[in-house]
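Re: the 165-residue chain
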Amino acid sequence: MTFIPSGGFGPATGTPVAGGLGPSLTVAILNNYTAIRDKIAEQLATLDTFLTVHATVPMAIVAPAAVVVPGNPIITPHESMDPGLVTYRFQIIAALQSQTEQYAQNQLDQLITGATSIPTVLEADQKLNAATYTVQVTEAAEYGVIDYAAQRYIGARFLVEATSS
């Protein structure tokens, strides 16, 4: 199993952005986003199902693989009376081999529910090793044939939300 981490962001630079977020808060949000994304990928790498887990979006994958992709919307700052509380959203693409449909579908079923499911593995450590306050899989969607980088796989997309400051 190979875990491919993301890069990260450097020190704060630039001018304030729309919505009142200054450069240091913007960089802090991006650094948190990167840290949370990496922790999600690390948790997914504990599953024997995947050959490779990508913390960033690759141009191509070798199935079985998981890819952590930015969600939509990516972040929602100021989620409470605490102006620093941010909700981060991710999408996990679980892509399994398409040549062995029944085997891939059985593996996919195990990723959706049970002891080796993506929700169970991610939600077992709510803090993702101190990167978040909470993490939860909010949805499993597009079960079946999915496309990634102009290739077709048996797979699903999982939506994940994490909160942090």
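Residues 75 and 88 are 5 Å apart (CA to CA).
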